Amino acid sequence: MLTIAVSKGRIYEDALPLLAEAGITPIDDPLTCRKLILRTTRDDVQLVIIRATDVPTFVEYGAADMGIAGKDILLEHGAESLYEPLDLNIACCRLMTAAHKDAPPIAGRVRVATKYVKITQRYFAGLGIQAEIIKLYGSMELAPLVGLSDCIVDLVDTGNTLKANDLEPRDLIMNISSRLVVNKAAMKMKHQAIQTLLDQFEKTLAKRG
Ligand SMILES: Nc1ncnc2c1ncn2[C@@H]1O[C@H](COP(=O)(O)OP(=O)(O)OP(=O)(O)O)[C@@H](O)[C@H]1O
Ligand SMILES: O=P(O)(O)OC[C@H]1O[C@H](OP(=O)(O)OP(=O)(O)O)[C@H](O)[C@@H]1O
């Protein structure tokens, strides 16, 4: 049996067509069913749909053989112990700094609100900017509006959330997409099954161009 951990929400939605091409369609719908392990149309594959931040942990410990998670989450987690064989090119967005449209350029000493503490620390240290980082778990855009921080580090896609809150994107930290990660022991022990699945995903991605 292969267990694949998938981030719930937009990654799960975007991953469904890719999984379907490999013959994997969940039998149970996670939106209506309270079951945490989902059976699929393939007897040898089951899915666990979990919080994005938990995916690397499940795969690292071998609780899941493979996982699908955003590069943002993988970098923040520090998932060096995982194989990352495929960029799935789904849930694409950008990790950026952003500030109020009338705020001065980010320089000197700044307060930054983010849920990406490690990435942010590394980024500002690289620029030689002294950053005080305030960890938040969501709605980062609110922080500069209420004086909690000078700027934020968050994901930007359409830019609508920033715009709606009088913020503007400033610097690109990195482009983000979802990656397929594999537990190293599983890669050896279940090599045949995993490699076949990787080949199937790769074929679909190549077709998509
Ligand atoms: N606006 C976006 N456009 C495209 N991809 C995004 C966007 N926001 C987030 N993502 C990607 O989807 C992943 C999951 O984001 P999502 O917003 O679904 O979960 P979340 O609400 O941040 O997670 P949590 O369950 O921890 O609250 C992110 O890690 C990122 O890789
Ligand atoms: O540029 P946009 O297209 O507006 O997308 C950016 C927004 O998307 C993500 O939030 P999400 O929708 O996941 O909400 P949450 O982080 O509060 O769960 C991200 O944290 C931004 O707030």
TrEMBL record:
Catalytic activity: 1-(5-phospho-beta-D-ribosyl)-ATP + diphosphate = 5-phospho-alpha-D-ribose 1-diphosphate + ATP
Molecular function (Gene Ontology), one example: ATP binding
Name of the featured protein: ATP phosphoribosyltransferase
PANTHER family to which the protein is assigned, alphabetical: ATP PHOSPHORIBOSYLTRANSFERASE, ATP PHOSPHORIBOSYLTRANSFERASE ATP-PRTASE
Major site of localization recorded for this protein: cytoplasm
GO biological process: L-histidine biosynthetic process
UniProt cross-references to InterPro entries, sorted A to Z: ATP_PRibTrfase_cat, ATP_PRibTrfase_CS, ATP_PRibTrfase_HisG, ATP_PRibTrfase_HisG_short
Domain notes: Lacks the C-terminal regulatory region which is replaced by HisZ.
Gene: hisG
Signal peptide: none
Cellular compartments annotated: Cytoplasm
Family: Belongs to the ATP phosphoribosyltransferase family. Short subfamily.
Oligomer status and interactors: Heteromultimer composed of HisG and HisZ subunits.
UniProt cross-references to Pfam families, sorted A to Z: HisG (PF01634)
EC number: 2.4.2.17
Its biological purpose: Catalyzes the condensation of ATP and 5-phosphoribose 1-diphosphate to form N'-(5'-phosphoribosyl)-ATP (PR-ATP). Has a crucial role in the pathway because the rate of histidine biosynthesis seems to be controlled primarily by regulation of HisG enzymatic activity.
